[in-house]
Amino acid sequence: MKIVEPQLDWKNSWKYSYPYDLLEIYGSLADYGYAYAYANRRKHTLELIQKVAEPGAKILDVAAAQGNFTLSLAELGYNLTWNDLRKELIDYVELKRELGNIHYAPGNVFDLGFSSEFDVVLIAEVIEHVAHPDEFLKKIAQMVKPNGYIVMTTPNGGYFLNRLPKFSDCPDPSQFESRQFQPNSDGHIFLLHLDEIKDFAKKTGLSILDARLITNWITNGHMKSSYLLKSLPRQWVEYLESFTETLPLIPREKIHTGFAVLMQRVSNV
Question: With a threshold of 0.90, does the pTM exceed it?
Fold first, then answer.
């Protein structure tokens, strides 16, 4: 992936994306918690995809923004389709592309006519931004080939600092439709819990093959642990993360901030 330098004539969406690229792919530690959390999420996401798909497989990256997962997967030899509502980001992704096969499909992914087309669909940090996550997952499943896969990452609703509502406790999710699809944590509507993910999968004809609780509160820099991250060697942070991922389910649910989930389409949806 090429390293680019910001220019005065860049579009606003490019200027907005660049600071995230500094943290996500260019190695900046200006925000230790964000950088470590993204690196951990990236590791698990790529592991789950490589677990079930060989290079050459067709992958759709939904709401892919500046395309860092798209580019990483293309460089690993996968056949990528990038999707995002912001068409102007295509040229920004191309600035960074060094190699790999990428097809661009901007717009609302549900208006693009994809049906049973992809070996893998990646929905990274997307489902928490929609008012009807159950319907969203059902529509995504229709884009996957029979026996194909969905890889999803999303914040963990069971995390002890979460203050957002549980989707299954909301009698009328349509009240949130006007604020869906907003970026970053300000756009989070619901944070899903493990039991909800299992329920969605079952109703959608998906089988959960792997559900990982990832990124503990220290790695994420919460409760002023970012000061600790500045002094800890990276290998210590990674060891701590690996250790907490082996804890029993109940404490794991409370101290980890995110999920990485691998699902397979096992029936028509």
Answer: yes
